[in-house]
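User: My advisor asked me to double-check a structure prediction for histidine kinase before group meeting. I don't want to rely on an old file, so could you generate it fresh from this sequence?
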Amino acid sequence: MDKKVGQFLIENEQKFIHFWEEQIIVHHYRDNPELILQNGHLMYHLITNSMLNGFSEEDVKLLAHKVARERVKANINIGEFVYNVNLGRSIIIKYLNLSGLMPEDLQAIINLVNKQFDLFCYFAVSKYTEIKDKKLQEQNLFISQTHKDRLAILGQMSSSFVHEFRNPLTSVMGFIKLLKHEHPTLPYLDVVSQELDQLKFRITQFLHTSKLNMLAESQNEDITIHLLIEEVLEFLYPSIVDGNVQIHTNIDADICITGDRNELKQVFLNLLINAVDAVCEEENLRKIDIQTNIDDHQIKIRISNNGPTIDPEAVQLIFEPFFTTKKLGTGIGLFVCKNIVEKHHGEIECISDNHLTTFQLTFPIKQN
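Assistant: Sure, here is a fresh prediction for histidine kinase from the sequence you gave:
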């Protein structure tokens, strides 16, 4: 009976292929219609051969893997491939129903056809997914390596930058101090000193980014958070006043963190400078709120501002190196913050909605 059906399919091959070709989905600008037609013939031959010579799962797998590689190379939606395959299945079964076989004889043949098409789809989609996943992993590896290469280049640039600028900057800052001592009433010295401190801070940012292993050389101590934040706010006082920014604090005086003072100071400097810059984009009331609390045996520090909302897509990338939402930003400040916070066994996250943008830092409580 199977051989009779196989012969019937051979005799009607051209009709079947023509009918199938008229209905399949083909993108002529990306697809190779001749290759698709060739694969249609190969699948049809597998079906007829199984009727004449017996079913071979290995032959089905080989053809499925061939087609999967071609689909990946053509970058064609796998859904369209599955549609075309199942269209072929439907046409074959339709022709089998016209073969004149009795229903009880026909059912076994249809079951065999369905088995081959099911396996073909399974093997093809599995291989397609495997190849796609591998390509995605290769792309992610390339992106990761590109980040490392960019950081390495930045490291070389930063080393040169620090070397060339640190000595003259130190000299200028020293002479400014002498001028303030000898001419305390001389105008603008405070402004110049403030700007030089900001320049020194930016140089330190690059240094931390290019040589993050330097963090391991830091000296840990017990740091009272409210004193450290007060120091940072004092440093930023001219910018806060100039921007007419209101600062509200609710900081527990007893909260302490064990860590490197200079590193943590840089974290709060970065976050508060960003907050000041953000609220200064608003024309209405400009507010920054700093709160601390202990929750579930963890120290939580929240720095919130009512500046512009950060898009959800940007929130996902905001701690990546070189990503910035500022027109003139470097994209390294928050990357440095994340590395310093994680080095102190903490976490940092950004939450932004229509009302507030909050950076939350979470640190473990020191165990005595």
